[in-house]
Design brief:
heterodimer, A: 163 residues, mainly alpha, 8 helices, 75% helix, B: 125 residues, 5 helices, elongated
Amino acid sequence: MNDFEDFISRYQDMVYTTSLRLLGRAQEAEDVSQDVFLKAFRRFGELKDSPTAGGWLKTVATNLSLNQLSRHRARWTLFSELDREDAPFDAAEAEVPVPEVSDEALEAALAALPDHQRVPLALFHFEDLSYEEIAGRLGASLAKVKSDIFRARAALRKALEAA
Amino acid sequence: MSESFDARLRRLPARRAPRTLAPRVLAAAALYARPWHRRPFWTWTLPAQAAFVAAVALGAAALLWLGEPVAASARILPGLDTLAPLGRALSRLLWLARLPLLGLVVMSAVPAAALASVALSRRTS
C-alpha cells in the first residue's frame, strides 16, 4: 500500500486539476479523482512502473469527468443551442492577448463559466483536443463547439477586464 | 496585455488536491483489496452485481414454480415417503409466500436489467 500512497502523492494534483477544470466544482472533482485512483488501484500492477501512467490517469480523469457532466449534458446542450446566434468564429482569436490577472482570478473566472462554455474551452486549451475531437467527445456539432469556445473566451475576457 | 489566451491558460499551475483525497482513496482501496465475498455489495463489479440480482430473481422464481411439483413427487415416488411432510410444508409455505416472492422477482428484475444495461454501455463506450 506504501507504493500506492506514493503513486497518489505523485499524481493527485494533476488528476484533481484535470477534473476540477472540467467540472468547475471542487466536491465533484474530488469524488471523480477518487474514482480515477480506484480504477488505477485495480491496475496498479501495470501502472506502477509504467512511463505512461500519467497519461492514463489524465485520460481516465477526463473521461470520468465528462461522464459526470453527461447527466446534465442534455440540458446544457439545449440551452446553449437556444441562445446561439451564430457567433462569429475566428481561429486567431485564441492568440488575442488577455488582461494581466493573477492565477487565482483566472481560475475563478474559468470556474464561473457555464458548463457548455467551460468544458470545450478546457478540452481545447488544457487537454490539447482538436475542435473535431471535442465535438466527437461531447456529441455536439463542430459549429457549436467552435461557437461555444469563442463565446467562452469572450466571456472570460469580459470577466477578467471587470476584475 | 501581452499574453495570448492559449499561452496564459497553459501557464496556469496545477491546483493542489485537497488533503482529504489521499486518505479517502486509501480507505476505499483497502476495501477493494479484500476478496469479493468480504466486500460490500456496492463494491462488486457491475456485471457481478447484475448476475447476483438475476440469480436471486431466478432462484426465487424457481422456488415459486417448482415447489408444488417437488412436493407432489415426494408424495408419489417410493422411498420418498418420509419427505412428503417436508414437501407439503414447503409447498404450503411457498403458496402462502407466492405474492411476496413474485414481488421480489419483479423488483429484482428491474435493477438487474438496469445494472446489465449500464454494464453493457460501459463496456461498449
